[in-house]
Amino acid sequence: xxxxxxxxxxxxxxxxxxxxxxxxxxxxxxxxxxxxxxxxxxxxxxxxxxxxxxxxxxxxxxxxxxxxxxxxxxxxxxxxxxxxxxxxxxxxxxxxxxxxxxxxxxxxxxxxxxxxxxxxxxxxxxxxxxxxxxxxxxxxxxxxxxxxxxxxxxxxxxxxxxxxxxxxxxxxxxxxxxxxxxxxxxxxxxxxxxxxxxxxxxxxxxxxxxxxxxxxxxxxxxxxxxxxxxxxxxxxxxxxxxxxxxxxxxxxxxxxxxxxxxxxxxxxxxxxxxxxxxxxxxxxxxxxxxxxxxxxxxxxxxxxxxxxxxxxxxxxxxxxxxxxxxxxxxxxxxxxxxxxxxxxxxxxxxxxxxxxxxxxxxxxxxxxxxxxxxxxxxxxxxxxxxxxxxxxxxxxxxxxxxx
Length: 403
What we know:
By secondary structure, this protein is an alpha+beta fold. The protein has 11 helices and 15 strands. It folds into 2 domains: 5-269, 4-Layer Sandwich (L-amino peptidase D-ALA esterase/amidase); 277-399, Roll (Ubiquitin-like (UB roll)), CATH 3.10.20. A hairpin with a 2-residue loop joins strand 12 and strand 13. It catalyses: L-glutamate + acetyl-CoA = N-acetyl-L-glutamate + CoA + H(+); N(2)-acetyl-L-ornithine + L-glutamate = N-acetyl-L-glutamate + L-ornithine. Pathway: Amino-acid biosynthesis; L-arginine biosynthesis; N(2)-acetyl-L-ornithine from L-glutamate: step 1/4; Amino-acid biosynthesis; L-arginine biosynthesis; L-ornithine and N-acetyl-L-glutamate from L-glutamate and N(2)-acetyl-L-ornithine (cyclic): step 1/1.
């Protein structure tokens, strides 16, 4: 049996249709049976949706018990009407579950600037709370209820044994366009039954997000609503993790990053109009930070994206992007490889162009999974990121998004 977020101890959820979207689920609830440590990374866009403001306020104590999210309306740039709508979401779910409204994480996704349908969402919450379940199908309904332009639901689950206890992490995500996270349109909600210190959970989530969601890009746009949130309810029964030196912490961090990378890759693979999934790897760098900045510079380049769409082995665009990364970069020490997921060809060796078969290269770049690999030869650190190409389909899709 396939496991999902409902296999995390003490977690119930549901995905329902409240009427915002025609014929599709558009309301998601994740509930922990007990109060939980909570953490989140939120968008750094200066224009922030109303639910982001509420969630930021409610998480000052790093505690929460429920996540509520609507799809089909971003509740961004909606003024006082939108603020009241977001507050109503928190208050309604709190009253229905008999918890404090301060323990509610609120999220929204959809079109920016449309009046928020408060009445429909409130009624949807009231009718959804009684349906909360830990059945596997509830997790599937949940994953589908946060989608907008996505073509498929995105779920992940990992677990591991520790001193007689099974520790689980489950999560969902959405995203297809406006994907250029900087957390802090993408959302990801996770739950785990590990017992862990609240502030350590926040630090760990940020670390893992930086190496997963913050290493992907589709179109270079950071949404007004980006959010990754996690509840950790402690119901696995482990001794509470309070230190980064705890061996359990090391394993948990690795597993959390594993599920976040999995969800991040699913978002990229569903990029609007994308025809290729591209992995970018920078290795042999003097520091991880340098490697990460170069990955982002290459993957953010519109010219690199279009070259990959056109199967053009124009390695000069990659080197030029590195030169614009805002860090010291010596291309004369670098090796650059281009190709598909299994076969990369050396096109630049220590700054000197190599002779390669361009027809063979174009054949490799015709594949749906592409890999760009850059060796700096200045150290031992590395970073990996993921992105998509920029296609005519993307332009056409987004040119008529609201009409």
